[in-house]
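writing this on my phone so excuse typos. first protein, seq and then structure
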Amino acid sequence: MFYFIYPIIFVGSVYSWKFIKRYKGWRKSEINKLYSVVSGVALSMIINLITSSDEDLYEIFGLKLNIYDCIYTIVANTLLFLGPLYQEYKDNTLKSTFSVQINQFDDRKKYIYAPLLEELTFRVALRNISIFWSALYFSLSHAHIFYRLYRRTNNLKKSLLRVVFLLSYTFIFGLYSGKIYQVTKSLPCVFFLHSFCNIIQFPKIQLIPNREKSEIIKKIRELLFAGRLQKIILGNSTADMDSCVGSILLSYTYEEKIAPIINFKKKDFKSHFEITQLFDPLIFVDEINLNDYQIILFDHNDFNHPNVIGCIDHHEDKGYNFGFKQIEKVGSATTLVGEILIKQDRLNQEIASLIIKTILLDTFNFDPKQKGIRWVDKDKQVFDHCLHYHPIDTNLEYQKLSDLKYDANLNLSLSLEEIIHKDYKQFTYNHHQVGYAVIFLSSQQFQQKYQLQQLAHYTEENNLSSLFTIFLLQQEQTIQREFIIFGKYQNVVVDAIKHLNIKELQQGINYRSLIDVENIYSRKILEPLIQQQFMKIQ
């Protein structure tokens, strides 16, 4: 029997739907792709049935189920993942890791469809060959991913290395799953362990501390711990990458002693996953007394403090009088710092790397739909200049950064207060306090752990006229936005933005839910409109 026909049918079915859709008029759809793979696996199982002899149906289809076999599988899996499980427990992410939403297609695909179809093909249909060969077939069936990687990155070396790594651990998993099936003869057991492994996933290597030690960091530390400082640079209260990286690099442009301050509580900064990967701990706003320093604002201009001497920003001008102001509508405030560094001829590979990472995130990797909204020509000019010092695969870098920023498990590991305050701003309009919270989860993901009612309580407890929450869901290269508005003045907020291409989804007892149809309306765009509406209230 030519057993290799099973993996050929399986991989072929992954791509055959693309050809079928040309003739059937199918739209691009993951469900249509699933139909194609199910058809391929069904064909394999028919061949398996026809060619099997001296075996009953339970053996042919792996339907044997024994309670002791299940216990054996659970114990083996637990021992195999004991390290990652303990780390998840220590990081308080265990509950969120196992929070699977079966009503979501993506979760069903990863934790039900893929494990079931792959185990039917590579364990059940290949049960009569050695474990080595079934594992090898299983591993090689993933080799086609090289084409997709190379097409996306155009980097032969990196694509090859990633595929070799993928083939290695899928081969090891194939040996493991094959051995379990050899012992149990049970499809349910290997389906369970495959699904379990997909939930835990490969250990998150990016979580291992990998902070960049550089001359910049050393210089910053010297400034921070040199004793008495006369001036500080204060980033905005969200302490996002633009604010943190821009503040640090801006301090580097001054000859005098001046230090960047992270405008966030030190104990809560762990929620900024994409930034903690870049820097050693710096000095946070709750560690100093602002009254002791002259303050330069960066990435905001709405902090009314007597010690503020100037600002560099890219948001709407809030009208405060400072000693100097540089406010320019660019996509990333770090672009303005990059422009200064270019003029000073102070770029190097390390600085360029930090600027590139920041601008990539702020501009959504220069999404063409976002031009004039999230980025302008100056962002691209500074970015391209930095690429000469640090040439990288920008698509791959953006994917790494955004995957970390929007990681659902990491975000769900945070407390409710940490989720709200991770990217939170609050403004006063005519004595009305309005809060804006950007939450890096979809509303459905958020409700795996918390309830919308808790956000309504937060609004009341903090005496907010309204809380404007922006739920973000990353899907491929698109960021989908859903707005849920709480508070007594939620109608004022809706009136301010109803002329935009925003569709109302639901009106609850104490909230209103809307969706951004075009996926372009950020807080930076919506906040000035909401301010104007509140200023009309007498």
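second protein below, same order as before
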Amino acid sequence: MSYSGASSTALDGRTSSIPVPVYRHAAPSGPWPWVDFNADLSSCDPLFEKGKHEWRGYPQELFGNWTATPVARSEMLKRCPRSDPCIIYGIDVMNDGQFKTLELHRVENEDELWSKLKKEESIVRENVSVRALFVDNLSESVLKMLGTKYNIEPFFFSSSTNWIPSRYREDVRHGEGDHITVILPFIRTTGKKRKPQLTPSLTDRNRKDTIDVMLPLQLDDGEHVHDLLIDLLALHMIRSKDSATIISYHPVLHDRTTAERLYQVMERAGGSVYWNKIFKASEDPTFFFLAILWYALYAWDEAFEVLYNRIKNVEVILNGHDFTAMFDLNYILHSLQAHLLQYQTLLHDFELSVKFVMESPNPAMENSHNKGTTEELMQRECKNLLSEIDRLHNRCSMFINRLKNATDLAFATVNIEDSRQTFKLTRATLRDSAAMKQISYLTMIFLPASFTASVFGMNVREINPGSLESITRYVWVSFLLTFVTTWIVIAVQPYSTIHKSGASWWRRAIWPALYITQKVIEYFRSFSVKGKKTLPQENDISLGQYRRNGDPSILRFDDAIYEEGAIGTSI
């Protein structure tokens, strides 16, 4: 069996990074849990004897295909904390809509917790619609106990520990109940004071990093650094006729929602008059499940408020025409754009999760006297939540468009400034050209006189009788010196139109001979080509072999058919 992907999905507690979701291992509909195409299927797992392990044999005790290999590769047990004690917070929602908090349970003795869970089987929860258990620091033993007690599909724990968005329904028993699972990553914000003396600037650090959308997005507003990070809601609900149970898993990762925090938030939801009316009007415990999903929506909304302020600040900087700041914002603009595209995917998962809840009615409510009321309320509340998610979708699209406008503005501003600088350079060039033109005019006036003075000042016999030199020797000496100067200048240049780039020194030294030879060869080649074009047999082309099927109006030239009438010719 292949374990190559296991290490790549490990959580990084130092950077608050989360693994990239492996969607093919998200739900029980996949028949091969945590098996990839490159896996060695010939290897055998250790022999497992059912019925001898009680809760310690989970998950293979209840789900035979979850052998040691897929359990090890999913790391669902490996990622359970072993140092901090497991703490379970509980809330009971009564049939009259009131909330009752349960005593906090710190798991220090495994046998004591298992005895308590087994004891619940013989106790009927009187007037309890749903019991919610929020688990902090889920240990390996508590995971196995909960999985065994409530017959939880292992995909819930493997998808939760690997942050895989998923939603599925299983063990459906009409008139009795079912199991539903929702694993929902969402975005939330944290705020903390800026510490410029301890950390490098965002610009210096980010220029060296790639854009990883799984890492927190840092937004610096000058006073605080807000982190937009991916958080997780992992909920499994066991719905039955007597009472329902919700289990909430919470990752052990910095700045994520703890079980205690979600427990406190849902406890305050018990004071909502609106939701109390819903709990009183319907016996369906799924409404509490739906209320928990509102926590993710609140987190999304707060995150977008911070993001809006950051985008507004970026636009202010760009409108200030500070080109140094524009250069520094280049990475920020692209990072914001990449994260927003990732947020669109997460919002889509959020929308699918709410639709899943809406389209998965509780089988235990099939024979309920208020079934119609329950269905009406469920449709209404799910549509309310979907409407809010649609608003977040639109806001995210607006952010993407504003960033695009900001990027276009940055490019346009830089181009305008470049055009302004080019215009200034052009004006300076024109001024220099005018000055050079005036100098040229002066040269035109004085050049004939200077030439005349130079000629008449020459000591040659033709002008000054009795001199030793002649004009002929002057011309030859001038030509020789001009040739030598030209030869030296071209020979010492490594780049020239006369010789190829990278030519050796000796080839550059004999460039006159090579240049003259090349020109002579080109001349004779051009003369040869012209001679071939004027040969009589080339001009007298017989058209008989190009006629097609005896039709005198159609000529064929290299598979191209031309109508003679179209080109205005006749034969």
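The two ends are 81 Å apart (CA to CA). thats all i got for now
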